Every structure is written in C-alpha cells, then in structure tokens.
Amino acid sequence: MKIALLISGLGPGGAERVMSVLANGLVARGHTVCLITLAGTGRDFHALDERIERRGLELTGDSRGYLGAVLANLRRLVELRRTIRAAAPRGVVSFVTRMNILTLIACAGLRTRVVVSERVDPASHSEGIVWDALRRWTYPLADSVVVQTESIARWFRSNSRHPDRVTVIPNPAPQAKLGKTHGTELPVAQPYVLGAGRLVRQKGFDLLLRGFSLVAPSRPDLKLAIAGEGRDLPSLRQLAASLGIERSVFFLGTVDNLLELMRSAMAFVLSSRYEGFPNVLLEALFCGVPTIASDCPAGPREILADGKYGLLVPCEDPQALGQAIAKVVGDADLRRKLAALGPLALLPFEHARVLDAWEAVLRTH
User: Fold this and answer.
1) How many domains does the chain have?
2) How high is the mean pLDDT of the chain?
3) Cβ(61)–Cβ(81) under 8 Å?
4) Contact 63, 71 (CB under 8 A)
5) Cα-based torsion angle of the residue sequence 94, 88, 41, 27 in order, rounded to the nearest 10 degrees
6) pLDDT tops 90 at residue 256
7) Which residues of 256-269 are buried (b: 16+ CB within 10 A; e: fewer)?
8) What range defines the domain where residue 159 resides?
9) Which is nearest to 326 in space by CA: 245, 240, 241, 213?
10) pTM of the predicted protein model
11) Who's near 89: CB < 8 A, 6+ residues apart?
C-alpha cells in the first residue's frame, strides 16, 4: 500500500518520534511511504529509512495578525492538496490537531482513506476557540480517529457523530539497544533524578522543582536534571533560584543521549498536568529506571497499570512528588524492584503489535 504520513515537522518531540517509528516500520513491511511535513527537511531530528520519500514544504513560520494566519493556512491547504494528490496514496495518516484539520480539508473529495491521530488529551488541552471548532467540524470527515488511551477514546466517542470510528493505538516502546555512550560524558554528575520534556506549563516542571526542593535539604548530594527546551526556561530558572536549589538543578536543553541519561538516573519523574501518551515514560521503563509519575489525564495510569510498575502521585501535588522522590532515592530495594518490572510494563506496547494496529486501521473496510 502507498501511504502518506503528515506532521508539521520532524523535530525532537514525542509525536515526531512516533511518526518516524511508524514511517520506518511501515516501509520495512513493504509499504511505499511518503512523509510530508510543513517544515523543511533541514531540521529533521529522527533518522529515516532511505526508502522513505521525504517531502518538506517549507511552510512553517509565525503569521502577522489574524488575516496573515488565514492566508498562511490557505497556502498550506493548497500545497498540501497538491502534494497529496501527486503522491496518490491509498491511505493518509496525520498527527496532531492542527495538522489533522488541515489534512482533512486538503483531502476533501480525494479518493483516499484518511486517518487522523490526536496526540493529547482534548478534555484538558484547548487549541483555541477557532481550532477547537474546526476540530469538531472536520474530524467527522475522517475514516478513523486514532487516540492513544482508553480514557481519551471515551471522550471522543461521547463527543463524536461516529463513535465507531475511534480507535485506540498506544505508542510503541523504544527499540534502541542500550550501550555505553563512547567518547561522551554525562552532562550532570551522579546521583541525580531526571525529568524530560518541553519546558511548558503542561509538563509541570514548576511542580517538579517545588517537589525536589523538599528533598534537597536532606540530600545535598542529589541533583535534578531536566532535559528539554521551551519558553518557560527563564521562569523555571527563576523559580529554582527562589527555592534556593539553583546549584542542584541542571537544565540540559535538547540531548542526544536521553536513554543513557535515564539509565544512569536514580529515578525518572513525570510531573505533567496532563498528557496524551508520554513517550518519556515508556523510555524510562525501557531503561530500567524507577519511575514516578503524576496521575494526570491521560496515559500514566494506563502505562503504569494503576501503579504496579511505578509510583503514581496525585496530579499538581508538589509535596507528593517530593515524598515519592525521597522514597525512591532512599530505598535501594524499591529501586531494584521497579527497575526489574520495566520490561513487563512494555509488553502491551511492543513494536510489532503497534504496527499491526496501524496496518489494520489503514485498510479500507
């Protein structure tokens, strides 16, 4: 089958990682794959199989004012439709809300199966009045809406004219082999706990800093490493200083050796206010690092099987985060137990199972 995959860009984010895994997996199974992005190809973060046809449209960038945004999106729609028609796929898969909306409009009237994948919990996250309204209008045009968890599926089914078109496909577990990163040193000295993600309010790094500040006085040797970039970096640095922990907190930016960082950490902490399906939690389990996760909507509870494979703490509760960090770093037996459970947690997310599910949803019924 010829398949077109669409996403805004192929940077270092979680949705981008899954898109690259999907593209590589489908082409390895004999499908013809064309990966289309609004961004150009110059900043691709993830490696792609050379058999994948890669098209970057160079259509990203900020617009000036409402009229500028409308005109920019009209240009995107025209170019997307032209590119998709030229690729002539039997199936189209789009990731992320705004790209999904553009794809559905661009594919109107084309004889191709269109699947859109929501990558965040819509009950917790708004794209703004206009985009939320466009989602309600366009998503019924999709042949299938793929979500990552059962809780998000329930929301879509209760708000959809076609609840039978909603399908749950979780993210695949990592497959990379872990070995020592030769010739490089970790950017933070052990012992440390690790957080990773975009530095935005959704990810709750302010909560993590407050939680860590409760542990720091009794563990002056312990450090907090945060991998990722985002607009909240200045305010997070300021918060760390106001909490008196700035010398124990390391903001690492985007890192190439995240799995090695995870493997060397005493614990991985996911402090999000809400999620779609946190890839970093799968990566932490894969690395055998003890995990602590906010019991936020949606994803952590399903991944950790109600707390069987890691510690779940109440959402937006810095004190609970601090207590969980103290518990894990202070108990070697607990760390060994949680590390051993990681591979079992990943069984439902095996690469082959996830690819089977994507192939099934792409078939025309």
Assistant:
1) 2
2) 92
3) no
4) yes
5) 80
6) no
7) eebbbbbbbbbbbb
8) 2-172+350-362
9) 213
10) 0.82
11) 2, 3, 4, 34, 112
